[in-house]
């Protein structure tokens, strides 16, 4: 009754996802259906073991973050910079966002978030904070050059990626982010464009962190680029 040997949809989709990615890529997935088939393809069939699959649901746990910081197959450790005691369970499970009219550089926002003295007492308990929901990631000229060939006629290669962490309505400032979202920002900041970063198309807008204007569709995944797409 449970023989699935001839059911290829799951594994074919997984292979399509993995083959969409550039070498040594990192891809963010969210649910079971866009994660487990990729793990199977790598673990059992040895397909694209250079890719690191990062599940956003599990990224809220300290033990999974620990796993991501170790080498797996042909994939180097994920470039998280945060020491374990900063993301330990019960620590930074929720980060409260403040609001400012100008964009805060991502490196300064993350430094603020990791500063224990910036925690605020909200009555029930203390929560770590971040100074702004509006963030900017500076892009060096050297890293810009890596993407010049991808720039279309209506695109702009930027030296600062400005993005906003918004609620599901796409307009209201987000009040807080989760540990997983904090770790995504930490990874993007510390990756320094050395490894290609992708989001699976099935993760949903809540996982995209306001970065959609900088997404480039490649196969079944959105690649993060320093290119502002107007279309």
Please describe what this structure looks like.
α2 (36-43) links the parallel β1 and β2. The relative contact order is 0.18. With 231 residues, the chain is α/β, with parallel strands linked by helices. It starts with 8 loop residues before the first helix and ends with a strand. Helices cover 24% and strands 23% of the residues. It has seven helices and 14 strands. It has helices at 9-19, 36-43, 62-68, 84-87, 106-113, 141-145, 179-191, and strands at residues 26-29, 52-55, 94-97, 104-105, 120-121, 126-130, 134-138, 155-157, 160-164, 176-178, 197-200, 215-218, 221-224, 227-229.
Show the helix and strand layout.
Elements: H1 9-19, E1 26-29, H2 36-43, E2 52-55, H3 62-68, H4 84-87, E3 94-97, E4 104-105, H5 106-113, E5 120-121, E6 126-130, E7 134-138, H6 141-145, E8 155-157, E9 160-164, E10 176-178, H7 179-191, E11 197-200, E12 215-218, E13 221-224, E14 227-229
Parallel strand pairs: 1-2, 1-11, 3-6, 4-7
Antiparallel strand pairs: 3-10, 5-6, 7-9, 8-14, 11-13, 12-13
Helix pairs in contact: 1-2
């Amino acid at each position: 009754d449970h023989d699935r040997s001839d059911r290829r949809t799951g594994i074919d989709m997984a292979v399509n996802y993995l083959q969409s990615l550039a070498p040594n890529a990192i891809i963010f997935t969210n649910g079971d259906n866009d994660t487990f088939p990729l793990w199977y393809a790598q673990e059992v069939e040895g397909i694209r073991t250079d890719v690191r699959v990062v599940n956003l649901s599990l990224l809220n746990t300290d033990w999974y973050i620990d796993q991501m910081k170790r080498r797996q197959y042909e994939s180097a450790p994920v470039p998280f910079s945060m020491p374990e005691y900063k993301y330990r369970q019960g620590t930074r499970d929720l980060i409260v966002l403040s609001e400012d009219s100008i964009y805060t550089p991502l490196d300064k926002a993350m430094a603020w978030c990791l500063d224990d003295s910036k925690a605020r007492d909200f009555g029930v308990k203390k929560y770590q904070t971040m100074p702004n929901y509006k963030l900017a990631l500076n892009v060096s000229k050297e890293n810009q050059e890596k993407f010049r060939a991808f720039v279309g006629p209506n695109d702009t290669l930027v030296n600062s990626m400005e993005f906003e962490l918004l609620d599901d309505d796409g307009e209201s400032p987000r009040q807080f982010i989760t540990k997983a979202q904090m770790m995504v920002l930490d990874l993007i900041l510390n990756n320094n464009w050395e490894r290609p970063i992708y989001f699976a198309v099935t993760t949903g807008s809540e996982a995209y962190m306001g970065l959609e204007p900088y997404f480039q569709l490649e196969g079944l995944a959105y690649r993060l680029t320093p290119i502002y797409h107007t279309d």
